[in-house]
Design goal:
The protein has 387 residues and is of the alpha/beta class. The protein is 20% helix and 30% strand. The strands form 6 sheets. Strands 15, 17, 19, 21, 23, 24, 26 and 27 form an 8-stranded parallel sheet that branches. The chain has a 7-stranded mixed sheet with strand order 5-4-1-6-11-8-12.
Length: 387
Amino acid sequence: MAATRTLLIVLAGGAGAGLETLTEARAVPALRFAGSHRLIDFPLSNARNSGLSEVWVLEQHHPGSLAEHLGGGRPWDLDRTRGGLRVRAPQPGGRRTGSADALWRVADAIEAALPEVVLVAAADAVYRMDYAEVVGHHLGSGAELTLVTTRHDGDRSRLGVVTARDGVVTDYAYRPTEPAGDLVTTGVLAFDPRALLAGLEQARHDRGTRGLGDVGEHLLPTMVRRGVVGEYRHAGSWQPIATVEGYWRAHMDLLAKPPFGLDDPAWPISTCDLRQAAVRVQPGAELESVVLAPGVVVQGTVRRSVLGPGVHVAPGAVVEDAVLLDDVRVGPAARVSRAVVDEGARVRGRAEVGGEAADDEVALVGADAVVHPRKRVPAGGRYPAGA
């Protein structure tokens, strides 16, 4: 079990510029994954499965996009009288310039809580991790900060790249244009609380009115230079969700070679219940390697795709290699291929979205957009929200 006074702080305020219109009206952690889940379910489920019972969620970008989903924290056993889930919305009139700034704004509350360890986790990746093991390793190492790292063979220009030797982090580069290696941070960090508060105070002093930025910009490099940062290597799967293509690819991997089961009874990834009708597959429909959320109605053909709650696919329509979010409608004889279609969008009869593309390009249709009959959104193209 984790230390009895471990405080988990989930950073849930990311704007996610690389996700384009998918985060125009929602925070990254509110983005659906695998049909029924949301990205914030992963750190919250990891917390529950690891025995952590005190969790703060720091919101910033579109805070309302998570409110209904989080509720009182019941799906993750965090609806408690003591401890449990505490959601911290942005202060009225306040401005957060990054994750370090968000932590600075709750520094007094951290000090008052008197935790033994402050565990910080981003909510923009798909993974499962025993936070208790991270905390135990951190306490045993004597480090002021422990970075959870992993090998990543994808795009590292949006990540923190690490050099480590014998369990000690010797160099750290934040979003480098030319990464020096494939060892990256997972966004999970275990802090000695006093070191965290002192580091935030120093960063505030150094940065002044410019804001503290993200933790990777100033706080982590400063601590690494002081030689007080250890490493904990995560050996399991870890998939960052930073771009539209990365989001699509994570779903295709889920269909082809799931890194782990979301409903594994030994480590379930819990989510808020969806109160919708059961899936309905009508006569004449064809399905191949699909994930269907509650409320889906399929009358056409769906192959290698993930359909979110309430999606309808009309007769004669073909959906292939696609991710369709809540309440999307695909009209008769329409075609959606190699695409992400945001919630509420309509692909009318005989319209076409996506197709074969080079370099992992994916077509994107924004929320509530209407792709009119016989219109074509090209492979890798963008169709704006509300169009």
